[in-house]
Amino acid sequence: MSRLAIVAAMHDELRAVLQAMPDEVPRVRAGREFWVGHLDGHEVVAVLAGIGKVAAATTATLLITEFQVDRILFTGVAGGLGEHVRVGDVVVADGLTQHDMDASPLFPRFEVPLTGVSRFVPDAALSDVLWRAAQTVLAEAAGAQGEHLDGARLRAFGITAPRGHRGLIISGDRFVSTQNESEALRQALPEALAVEMEGAALAQVCHDFNVPCAVVRTVSDRADDAAHVDFNRFMAEVAAHYSLAIVRRALRLLAA
Ligand code: SAH
Fold first, then answer.
1. What pLDDT, in 10s, does the model give residues 180-202?
2. Residue 28 forms beta bridges with which residues?
């Protein structure tokens, strides 16, 4: 039977997933609790990676080498960068770039030196599953009350017509929280839909180990001058519901 890892950076992103696991047992490695158990009958390992690229890389390495997971799914929040990417939207990665990697002029900007890679590509099948899961959950939420994601809760929060996007997600060791900075990222990487702090590091480790991974992010803020306020509110009130809704739906698709 296959073993799927469900990873998030922070507790608010994974809280609901952990609550929905009936039998999880913690195993501590490198200061992290790896919750081994089941979610809706699937064998899973859920873990909080912590924040940033190194934390994500350590966690992914342990999941692969010590917990023998054969797929990794990262769920969490991100800042919206694409003009049309709004708070409450969902972004599924079809490429992941480390926006703070820059060994130029020795290597092209954004390329991880000596790998020739500047854009890590997540697993197509797993990303498709996340994409279909996100579409379903968003469509449900737009209706009266979703089976997985409660549209009324979103509307109370001010999210009325959340949309899905698929494309480039960029990662770096910075919480992007000024208009100037997000504008600079848009200039440098015009395709980028969202910015966060872990995805591209996880993808690099998965690339090295040849383990399929996929990344889904809900947009908590616009990576602008109001980002810190929007982020905190979103984390407290909405983030966990998105994660559980999308992960549950994805698991159902994987079983089908
Ligand atoms: N204030 C938080 C730190 C948040 S860092 C604390 O004290 O714990 C932001 C986290 O959310 C990271 O895990 C990152 O992946 C994601 N994220 C959301 N919005 C972001 C943004 N605008 N820029 C970078 N990362 C963002």
1. 999 999 999 999 999 999 999 99
2. 33
- Does the C-beta of 220 come closer than 6 Å to ligand 1? yes
Q: How far is it, in rounded angstroms, from Cα 95 to Cα 231? A: 23
pTM value is 0.96
Among 196, 220, 224, 243, say which to mutate for ligand 1: greatest number of ligand atoms within 8 Å of CB.
Answer: 196
Q: Residue 151: CB within 6 Å of ligand 1? A: no
Question: Percent of the chain beyond pLDDT 90?
Answer: 88
Map residue 11 onto helix, strand or coil. Answer: helix
Confidence of residue 150 (pLDDT cuts 50, 70, 90): confident
Q: Does the beta carbon of 227 lie inside 6 Å of ligand 1?
A: yes
Residue 44: pLDDT over 70? yes
Question: Rounded to the nearest whole angstrom, what is the distance from the C-alpha of residue 201 to the centroid of ligand 1?
Answer: 15
CATH number at 152 reads 3.40.50.1580
- Tally of domains in the chain: 1
13 lines ligand 1 (CB under 6 A): no
Which residue of 59, 77, 180, 243 sits with most ligand 1 atoms within 8 Å of its CB, as the best mutation to test the pocket? 77
The H-assigned helical ranges of 99-213 are 124-142, 151-157, 179-188, 199-209
Q: Quick: pLDDT tens for 67-115.
A: 999 999 999 999 999 999 999 999 999 999 999 999 999 999 999 999 9
Instruction: Label residue 24 exposed, middle or buried (CB < 10 Å: 0-12, 13-18, 19+).
Output: buried
Give the range of the structural domain holding residue 40, as residue numbers without chain letter.
Answer: 3-255
